[in-house]
Amino acid sequence: MAGRTSPSNGGAGRRTVLAGTAAALAAALAGCDAAPSGQPSDDAPQGPLVTGRKPKGKDVIDVVADCGAKGDGRTDDSRAFARAYAYAAGRVWDHIGRTVIDIPAGTYLIRSPHALLNAPAGKLKANGLRFRGAGKRMTQLIFAPSRSEDAYLCRNEDGWANVMFEQIAFRSATPGASFFYSFSTGQAQDYRFSECEWTGEWTYGLALDGSNTNSEMRWDACRVGGSYRKAFLYSGLSQKSPDRSQQDQFLNYWFTDMKVEYSWGNFLEFPYGGSVTCRGGSYIITGRRPGDSPDYGRTSTFFRFPRGPHHDSVQRFHAEDIRFEVRGPDTVVIDCAWDSGTVHFNDCDDTAHSFKPFAETSRPHRYRIGPRGPLVRYDSCQLSGKHFYEEDAGGGPKARYDMCLLRNHSAQDFIEGAGGRVSFVDCLGT
């Protein structure tokens, strides 16, 4: 028995302890299979859990060693990356991806669109694809297609869910090319980017299209550089969707500890609503648009939420612990015309350049509030310039500023437009 003592020292003997441990382990293992051998328990699922056979080949492949990429910044490595993706797609088993694609340190020139990820509509339904670099600015992918129009490095049309990119830098060497096109009617979702970087001039970073589930996407400790003719993340492209008003399932996007420091363009653009959370980091627009844009004029905006036709989808935005730099009158932190939902800034600061001559008349936060909102709230923020609220027919809820520091104006002069819809609680102005 395990409790038996040795007559020599009054403790359990070594052999007795080992025997007790073995007995306990055997009992634990027996407990994992309570049903008699050969007899399934009442709760056990009947039939095979997984169909087909496990695919042959390696679970981790190297685009250099296994697929022939050079990574010298001069050789076109498009075929090597296409080969790596085809290998991963070919090893999908029971709708589950089984391959990690390793991209060692180096500079990889890619000229062919869709070479990194190519999932056209109707070809594949899979869950789990992972691209793993050696480190930000150690693994660099240069996208240089012959023309920029509709040229995307990645395409996922209802093919993959749970796609991960780690420690990779992406650069557009053809001005106006785009990084990722994602179309979904229920499949394309759950993307994660960890310690990645974007530079160069893009039209879109990620362009989301479809009527359902382009959602559950996360960016952690990434750097968004370069410039964007449209936006880094554009939700609701309407390129393939037959009904624009059905674009209403853009949910749950998280940006954590980001370094958003790009030359011009928009960071996020969500005309069809969405649930967006940005926590921590530094957000800076370093330059100006090279010319007037038909859609945006000369402004560059971090968070642009126009009012598009759609069903009553979620409309929620939250920014917390972020330092914004408003370097000129054409820099806008938020321009929101959603017709419902909530907008909340908590412990944010955009006053780094509030001492400059343009700051007093600048309007870096702009709203159009309808009868159902959005509800707007600022808590413990430091704010420069003025905030603008456009009149909208039918009245609407009030915006609220709580314990905020207004750098350029008193509370009475801080609001332009529909000032009667704004209340201040324990705020301090000039």
From TrEMBL:
<dbReference type="Pfam" id="PF12708">
    <property type="entry name" value="Pect-lyase_RHGA_epim"/>
</dbReference>
<dbReference type="InterPro" id="IPR012334">
    <property type="entry name" value="Pectin_lyas_fold"/>
</dbReference>
<keyword id="KW-0378">Hydrolase</keyword>
<dbReference type="GO" id="GO:0016787">
    <property type="term" value="F:hydrolase activity"/>
</dbReference>
<protein>
    <submittedName>
        <fullName>Glycoside hydrolase family 55 protein</fullName>
    </submittedName>
</protein>
<dbReference type="InterPro" id="IPR006311">
    <property type="entry name" value="TAT_signal"/>
</dbReference>
<dbReference type="InterPro" id="IPR024535">
    <property type="entry name" value="RHGA/B-epi-like_pectate_lyase"/>
</dbReference>
<feature type="domain" description="Rhamnogalacturonase A/B/Epimerase-like pectate lyase">
    <location>
        <begin position="64"/>
        <end position="153"/>
    </location>
</feature>
<dbReference type="InterPro" id="IPR011050">
    <property type="entry name" value="Pectin_lyase_fold/virulence"/>
</dbReference>
<feature type="region of interest" description="Disordered">
    <location>
        <begin position="33"/>
        <end position="55"/>
    </location>
</feature>
